[in-house]
Amino acid sequence: MHPLGLVLFALIILGSWYWWQRQPDDKRGSATLKLILIFVTIGLLAMAITGRMHWLGALIALVLPFLQKLLPLLLRFLPSLAGTLNRKRQQKKQQRSNRPNKQMSRDEALEILGLKPDANRDDVIQAHRRLIQKLHPDRDGSAYLAARINEARDRLLE
């Protein structure tokens, strides 16, 4: 390390220690936290300047000292964020529940599986297997379509 850098580092340490000593006993805990945040920020910025760290890390380091002020603001807005997320969840539940709960008709089940009205049990099983292999959610298919295919199979095998 460059000698001037060592001197600057020593002055920062001594100044911080002097400032910390002047704090009342009841405020030393928060003063310690502030010093730690400042030292981490300075260290991360030094690493970014010397090319030992990505610039995004330096940006995060720049935000660290202000975290004490930003955190209450973020927490104040979190209930509205949580409300937004809850509303989206409710909308998804409503979309899922909008599907009528009526039982699928035999004609609808035959149409979904692509079968003729005179299809037997083996035809139903083969058609189901063929479609579910293509449309299963584990193979990037749709969960809704897989459920409809299963429902059609169950209806025809009753």
From TrEMBL:
<keyword id="KW-0143">Chaperone</keyword>
<keyword id="KW-1133">Transmembrane helix</keyword>
<dbReference type="InterPro" id="IPR001623">
    <property type="entry name" value="DnaJ_domain"/>
</dbReference>
<dbReference type="InterPro" id="IPR036869">
    <property type="entry name" value="J_dom_sf"/>
</dbReference>
<feature type="domain" description="J">
    <location>
        <begin position="108"/>
        <end position="158"/>
    </location>
</feature>
<keyword id="KW-0472">Membrane</keyword>
<feature type="transmembrane region" description="Helical">
    <location>
        <begin position="33"/>
        <end position="49"/>
    </location>
</feature>
<feature type="transmembrane region" description="Helical">
    <location>
        <begin position="6"/>
        <end position="21"/>
    </location>
</feature>
<keyword id="KW-0812">Transmembrane</keyword>
<protein>
    <recommendedName>
        <fullName>J domain-containing protein</fullName>
    </recommendedName>
</protein>
<comment type="similarity">
    <text>Belongs to the TIM14 family.</text>
</comment>
<dbReference type="GO" id="GO:0016020">
    <property type="term" value="C:membrane"/>
</dbReference>
<feature type="transmembrane region" description="Helical">
    <location>
        <begin position="55"/>
        <end position="78"/>
    </location>
</feature>
